[in-house]
Amino acid sequence: MRVKIHVRRYNPEQDPAPYWAHYEVDVEPTDRLLDALHEIKWRVDGSLSFRRSCAHGVCGSDAMLVNGVNRLACKVLIKDLGPEIRVEPIRGLPVLKDLIVDMEPFFEAYRTVKPYLIVDDEHLPEREQLQSPEERERFDDTTKCILCAACTTSCPIFWANGRYLGPAAIVAAHRFIFDSRDQGAADRLAILDSRDGVWRCRTVFNCTDACPRGIQVTRAIQEVKQAIVSNRLRGDGRAAGAGAAGRAADRLRAE
Known about the structure:
Elements: E1 2-9, E2 19-26, H1 33-44, E3 63-66, E4 69-72, E5 84-88, E6 95-97, E7 100-101, H2 104-112, H3 133-137, H4 156-160, H5 167-177, H6 185-192, H7 206-210, H8 217-234, H9 242-254
Parallel strand pairs: 1-5
Antiparallel strand pairs: 1-2, 3-4, 3-5, 6-7
Helix pairs in contact: 2-5, 5-6, 5-8, 6-8, 8-9
Pathway: Carbohydrate metabolism; tricarboxylic acid cycle
InterPro entries: 2Fe-2S_ferredoxin-like_sf, 2Fe-2S_ferredoxin-type, 4Fe4S_Fe-S-bd, 4Fe4S_Fe_S_CS, Beta-grasp_dom_sf, Helical_ferredxn, SDH/FRD_Iron-Sulfur, Succ_DH/fum_Rdtase_Fe-S
GO molecular function: succinate dehydrogenase (quinone) activity
């Protein structure tokens, strides 16, 4: 099967502006887009630049805009894209070269929400902290994130305002806010209850559609909004632990 692949290329060190490069390669319908890009890189034009690592949808490094939609090149098949394919870098992040973008603004937002387990000195466990299946299930969906940035760079709010923390950072916060072992929920909720936090979300669902792991991103964002509201309703100024904030949000949603 012969396909035409149009790649939006740009080298800021030598190109005055981005341009389209056009290639034709022979591939199998069941090949992945990544295979076609390898064919170009290895046999047609060695100057083409893109990221890839595991090639199995785990590392998240090869996210790109494919026919107008964010996808992992290693997961999308040629037969599902058709004989003519447009490939561009993901939007909203500075282009370093061709399909490679600067991920540092994305990771800076990720670090902002404290994506790690927080336990204060008074609650340090003496042994392994066990969770029930129900406690684990509460945040299981958001543990699947591979930090590919497909969700964040599909968000029109992020395109217009790079200060917005974005869906991936909120998903990372969700994973710990609803973890019964964590004590840092109040800090995360305060960070997200800010000018550039969850309230910028307009519930477009682009993030959910773009996620290669099937995470219900929009739902996670809504649950964090509910947790913030429930934390406000407490009104006692005390820092709510993750379990408390999560349970309060669950009660609010049930009502």
